[in-house]
Amino acid sequence: MRIDIATLFPEMCESVLNESIIGRARRRGHIELHCHQIRDYTLNRQKQVDDYPYGGGHGMIMQAQPIYDCCMDVIGQVCAAGHERPRVIFMTAAGAPLTEAKCRELARCGSLLLVCGHYEGVDERVIEALADEELSIGDYVLTGGELAALVVADSVFRLCPGVLSCPEGYEDESHYNGLLEYPQYSRPEEWNGRCVPEVLLSGHHANIERWRREQSLERTRLRRPDLYQEYLKKVNSENS
Ligand code: ADE
Question: What is the pTM of this model?
Answer without folding.
Answer: 0.95
